[in-house]
Input
Amino acid sequence: MKLKAVIFDVDQTLVATQDLILAAFNHVLAKCLKKELATEEIIAAFGPTEEGILKNLLGVRYTPQVLEDFYRFYQAHHDRVRVYPGIPQVLSLLSSHRIGRGILTGKGNRSTLFTLSATNLLNSFEVIVTGDNLSRPKPNPEGLYKAMTALKADPEQTLLVGDAAADFMAAKEAGARCWGAYWDVPEPEAFHKSLPVRPDRFFTKVADFHQALLKAISKS
Output
C-alpha cells in the first residue's frame, strides 16, 4: 500500500526535550510542594498537556500562574533542546516525495509551537495536532484520526513514529503502521520487550530510519 502520510511524536522523537521538560516541572513543583519529584514520578504523569499534568500533580494548589511559570522556564532554557541529527534530512525526503507530514503530541499548543519554531522544524509539517486539540490524548487514537483526516490518508497509508507505548497503542487501535524511534532510549532492546504494545519496527539510529523510509517509499 502506498505510503501517503508520516505522523511524528515530538519529544524524544524529533527533538531531545526530556531534560528540559523535567527541569521545568520540577522548577514549579519545588515552589508549590517545597520538594522536587523523581524523574519516574513525573514521567508517569505524562499523557495530558502541561496544564493537565500540573493539575494532576498539584490538585488544589494549581493556579494559572503556575502554568505561566512553567512556560517561562521552558522558553528561557530552551537552548538545552537539540534536534536529533538526521531528522531535517528525513523531513526533506518526505517532502520531496510529496508524503504528508504531521505532528501528534500530548504537549500543549504553546510548547509545541515554540519548540518547533525554535528548532526550525515548524514549516516542515502540514498538520499539527496537540493535546489542546483533543478530548482524549494518546493512547486513544482520536488525535491520529484527526491528523489522518487532515492529510487525507487512510490508516493503511499512514505511518506513526514515536518513542512511547501510547504512540504504538494509538496506531494499532487506528489500524495504522507504527515505527519506534529509540535513538534516545538507554536500553532499547529491554525497553522494547517491556512494552505492552510494540511497534512494527524500531530504530536506534536516525540514519537507519531514513534508509527504511527510502525503501518503503520505493515500494509504494
